[in-house]
Amino acid sequence: MMGLYDPLKVNQPVEIELPGNSKFSYRSRVEEIFRSKLTLAAPLKKGQIVSLSVGTTVEVSYTDQMAIYTFESQVISQNTNTPPTVTLGEPYNLRRTQRRNFVRLDVGLSIVFTQIDDDSKPMGETFSGTTVDLSGGGAMFVCNTLLKHGVILDIAIYFSKNDSVKALGRVVRFTEKPSHTKQKYSVGLEFTVIEESERDKIIRFIFNRQRELRKKGLL
Question: How much is the pTM?
């Protein structure tokens, strides 16, 4: 891929999805790479091996520092020994999206934040708000907390109750909303310190949400 399976590497995390069924998305990793086939760790659901019949079409996605990649392939064998694996044939419908092409996703997620000082120490209590949009480089959110342009926030954005990303960000825009709105202020935040693994979680969340919207004809 780009010479079949390049730039995949052994032990690289991937996601396996049965096309058309976004609820069937499983985390996996690369076990072995051959000239025209690929062996992945068998996907698990609640600790049990997910059975994939020979000929089943799957979609695989993964990221590196430059882009996000997706391709489709067909199951050619599954091994239930230890460790359980699934082997895929040659990839097709290859897609590569540069990180710089990622756009902001309009999405309302819970965000909590604390203003920090120059020594990265909290300056006060923790506040909350709701995102308006999100990207790998920052977010727009609304809140009822008075902030100033240029201040640094320690933030956590929650995809769900037990799944979040953390970062430091600088307020690059701060405006007061019309008086009749529930949230008083609109805040533009640019990430200044964020682990690449955290940024990858954001990018993958956006990618998966956009994929769901495309399947529904909404994007």
Answer: 0.62
